[in-house]
Write a structure and sequence with these properties.
Layout lengths: L11 H6 L8 E5 L5 H8 L4 E8 L11 E8 L2 E6 H4 L3 H7 L5 E4 L2 H9 L9 E3 H7 L7 H9 L19 H23 L4
Parallel strand pairs: 1-4, 2-5, 5-6
Antiparallel strand pairs: 2-3, 3-4
Helix pairs in contact: 7-8
Length: about 200
């Protein structure tokens, strides 16, 4: 589909009729501090990126896990940084504080709050996608429904509650994590291309 739709909402029934889709480009998993500088050098060539995090789910009340994965999407590639292994290095902190690179996602405030528990930083350049879609009159706020409306496909959420702290992520996890960050960038580009001026 890939165009701004005049439909401002979508029902679960309509959503379930859509074909499944996912990011099919290159996925680079970074579980080692030494690789972070090179990855962020590549990322910093872009003015805007898709942004998301994953945390291992908790099934015990009052218990919290720390963010395990940071996803950064550029048009043809998604970087998955295993924060459980690397922590937030100075290079990642500088990226999170860089106002020149727009970092686009959904529920960004929650992501930032969780990342701050790993290391304090001053967030700059973050764009909450649902603020833009609401302003454009869209009535849905989940990544799943925004993807359906703007990109015309359904994303599988079956890996959402899997173990994001695993040293080796399985193919289903890789695709899920990459897709979530990548669709945010795609939707943002669509909205921007239709904004006046």
């Amino acid at each position: 589909m890939n165009h701004l739709t005049s439909t401002k909402t979508i029902s679960n029934e309509e959503l379930n009729e859509l074909p499944l889709g996912a990011f099919s480009g290159k996925i680079e998993v970074i579980g080692n501090e030494d690789k972070i500088g090179e990855a962020l050098e590549e990322i910093s060539q872009y003015d805007r990126v898709g942004f998301d995090t994953e945390t291992k789910p908790v099934f015990v009340r009052g218990h919290h896990n720390k963010v395990a994965l940071l996803q950064i999407a550029v048009p043809e590639k998604v970087f998955l940084i295993q924060l459980k292994e690397t922590g937030i290095t100075n290079e990642i902190k500088l990226f999170l504080q860089n106002p020149r690179i727009e970092k686009v996602g959904v529920a960004i405030r929650d992501d930032l709050k969780a990342l701050q528990l790993l290391k304090r930083f001053r967030p700059e350049g973050f764009v909450e996608l649902t603020t833009l879609t609401r302003a454009a009159g869209y009535e849905v706020e989940s990544v799943k429904k925004l993807t359906a409306l703007f990109l015309g496909f359904r994303i599988s959420k079956s890996a959402q509650t899997s173990n994001w702290e695993a040293p080796q992520l399985d193919p289903r996890q890789l695709t899920y994590a990459a897709t979530d960050a990548w669709v945010c960038l795609q939707i943002y580009d669509l909205i921007r291309s239709h904004q006046p001026g």
